[in-house]
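Onboarding guide, step 5: your first structure request.
Type a short instruction followed by the sequence, for example:

Predict the 3D structure of this protein.
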Amino acid sequence: MAAYLVARFCSAAQYTSSLITATLLLLVLFLLVRKSKAKQAEAFFEQIHGCCTPRRLPYSWPLALDIVVYAFRTIGEKQVLQWFVDIFDRTGPTFEQYILGAKGINTIEPENIESILSSNFAGNIRDGYHTNAYKLNALSGYGLGARRPTFYPLLGDGIFTQDAASGRHSRETLRPLFSFLRTDIFVQFEEHTEHLINCIAPNQSIDLQPLFFQFTLDMETFFFSATDFAEAFRISQGFLFRRGRLGNAYWMIDGMYFRKQCATVHRFIDEAVEEALSVEHEHDNSEGKHGFLNALIREGTRNPRKLRDQLLNVMLAGRDTTACCLTWTIRLLAQHPHVQNKLRAEVECFFGVGDECRLPDRNTLKKMRYLSFVLKEVLRLYPSVPINSRTALEATTLPRGGGPDGTKPLMVRKGEAVGYSVYVMHRWKKIYGEDADDFRPERWDPQGKNVVNLKNVGYGYLPFNGGPRVCLGQEFALLEAGYVIVRMLQKFREFEMDPRTKNIAVGAENQEVTLVVASTDGCMIRAVK
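The system replies with structure tokens like these:
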């Protein structure tokens, strides 16, 4: 009897084992067939659209771990953007990468970037080609990919993390807030600029970068000087940058320290939101001390969480980008005295300098050609968002990058990320000439003697993104930066570079790259009265 039971058990075990083996074989066969059909569909897609294989980023270690290690090393050394420039110089303007098992495309070619942001934007979907195995859509659009879960711990649901309908709704909500119809806008400009200038001790070495960050914080939100908030906001953004570099593996960069910094930021914003809501309830028509926040409430948003999320998203766009622009502008003016003198002469011509000067106004600021050239050149060398990406919603194409010479279209698979670096593109000699690395505002003068004509540069100059998601506050930001620069040149005769950073070449500085690019060494100058 016992022998019979043992035999039956062994027989059942053999049957179960055979069943599992057969199931696994069928699963493997199914996956192989599906992969084969996908390959056939991809080949068919590439044939229809004339796609060719792109260059590939070379690597030495399995899974390209050497690239990952070197990337984090350059981040620690504050030289990651310079490394990106070197990579594109060696590999070409468009290439494929295969890192940690994930494929992606990187590009700096204006035609490709225009396709990603505008002509092939997610809102411009058209019907394409189909097979049973693969949706083959030549213009299927791009989305934000993993950006929302990557940025959510800090930014929540706001204009930077929202796609499609929710993103469009946020843009429509925020658009009126950047209107110049507000009669008090120049009063606010002058109030905060005067406070900024009063913090600058004349004829002494001082770091202007933290003052610029506090200035834009005051302009965007409310009056408080919170070192804890500013530091937590900076550290949190650093985490977001590193998470963003890992794509769908963003979750590998996390932890209690990161979450603690986010919580610190949220605590300060929540307190401000609570105060603004209470003040707005008591005084329906008051501007209050919370500027932008009060305006957002008057647009109809009273949910504290939504207010916090939108405010943080706008702060990221308006506070850090403008502060960085001001930092790099003063650094470059101090490094290039001839440019500084020429700009100050224009300021004197329009508004005067010294104690008898006049305050700038919008219409006159827009007439200052050389100021416009200077700000354009600063944003060329140090664009607000140096690195960005989009993810293909379906199989699609890029117009350039395929083939040995990179002139043919290339295929972008569904779910594949396409990264683009405005920072590198703005230094591409093919677009800006052999002096692309130099700070030369005159290159933007259409009447000047320039080797390269930038009149039709198009998507080759992209300091404020482009297409349907172009920066809502670009005119506001340029006005704000221009106003501050003019007032500083009126108050001070000269800005001298600190000797310790005077001889560092443009682009060779230590850079703090979060979602923007700041100066690790700050903006150490001496303001001469």
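Each response can be followed by summary notes, for example: The first strand starts at residue 55 and ends at 56.
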